[in-house]
Amino acid sequence: RPSASAASSSLASPSAAIATSTSTMASTSAAEPGIRISDRTRRSSLGLRCMVLLMHVVFVGAVFLLDSTLDRRIREEPWHIGAYGALVLITLVQYFYTAGSSPGYVIDAMKAGSTMHATYINTATLSKQSSPNNGSLNSPLSLPQQQKLNPVTSTSSWLQRVADLYPPGSSSRDWTCTYCRVIQPPRTRHCHDCDKCVLQFDHHCVWLGTCIGKKNHCRFWWYIFEETILCIWTVALYIDSLRLDIDKAWYDVSFSFNVIPLVTLL
Predict the structure, then answer these.
(1) Ranges of H-type helices in the chain
(2) Angle at CA 33, nearest 5°, toward 205 and 42?
(3) How far apart are CA 201 and CA 198, in angstroms?
(4) 3-state DSSP of 65-93
(5) From CA 231, how far away is CA 122, in angstroms rounded?
(6) CA 179 to centroid of chain Cα atoms
(7) How far apart are CA 213 and CA 103, in angstroms?
(8) Is 205 considered catalytic here?
(9) What is d(CA 114, CA 157) in angstroms, rounded to the nearest whole number?
(10) What is the dihedral of CA 206, 209, 215, 218, to 10 degrees?
(11) Ranges for the Palmitoyltransferase DHHC domain (predicted)?
(12) Residue 30 neighbours by CB distance under 10 Å
């Protein structure tokens, strides 16, 4: 790792990078309170999640409605139906948990670093202003006030942290996003759907309505695992129900209603 002085000397235009990142943090903070249900992207994401929930209800509900042996199986194998219902519930909870999670946006990491910097300054000020004789304490500036007074220092700290992750001699222009103008650590990409830079960007999942990145990568794979088991189990239940109705004609109502969901699910 390069030293602090070496990393600083290797930056092509650190002042410009700091200025753009500082303005980006300020504009993002001002825009965040306006993000509500009126946002078109947010409405689309909520509509997609409701559709996924409806798909689970329809396909799982069809299993219980079309299975002619359901009453007997509940009496003989209650654990089987209970385990299937528990898997459905766990999968849906994991879906909404993953869909509502943050993938790890660069702007959030910059704000977290700014808060840590302000906390350090605040603690140092407290120790200096406390009187050793009577223990009296003068109240320093609050964290939001310090962040407003010195945003360049915290952004400079973020720039230095990013510089330590790159090889010596790299240019800061190669780290700055051309869309949102933030300084990108390695493996960071700009998502055009979310319009933000994501740490360790993997992809933007349309079905979840969010990006998959550093913070929710593990949650995403847990959801994929649970959803796969649920789909296999549901297909097996449909096939088992079809096996019992195989002697019926293809135009029979119950037989057709079993085939249609199975083909759609596959």
Answers:
(1) 4-10, 14-31, 40-66, 70-76, 78-99, 106-129, 143-149, 151-163, 217-244, 253-265
(2) 30
(3) 5
(4) HHCCCHHHHHHHCHHHHHHHHHHHHHHHH
(5) 53
(6) 20
(7) 4
(8) yes
(9) 8
(10) -50
(11) 175-255
(12) 9
Helix (H, G, I), strand (E, B) or coil at 213: coil
Whether residue 233 contacts residue 83, with contact meaning beta carbons closer than 8 Å, is answered with: no
Can you tell me the distance from the alpha carbon of 187 to that of 118, in angstroms, rounded to the nearest whole number?
A: 27
Scanning the structure block, which residue is given the tokens 């297909």?
235
**What are the structure tokens assigned to 207, written together?**
């079905």
User: 177, 197, 205, 211: which one is catalytic?
Assistant: 205
Backbone φ and ψ for 196, nearest 5 degrees, come out as -145, 155
Query: Are residues 175 and 161 in contact, defined by beta-carbon separation less than 8 angstroms?
Result: no
Tokens representing residue 230 in the block: 């649920």
**Contact in structure between 211 and 198 (CB atoms under 8 Å):** yes
CB of 77 within 8 A of CB of 86?
A: no
What was the pLDDT predicted at 218? Answer: 95
Long-range contacts (CB closer than 8 Å, 24 or more residues apart) made by 138-146: 143/115, 143/118, 143/119, 146/118, 146/121, 146/122
d(CA 141, CA 122): 7
In the block, residue with structure tokens 């109502």: 253
Q: 174 near 183, Cβ under 8 Å?
A: no
Tell me the pLDDT tens digit for each residue of 245-254. 655 544 454 5
Q: Is the overall model pTM greater than 0.85, yes or no?
A: no
Amino acid at 70: L
Domain residue spans of the chain: 4-31+41-265
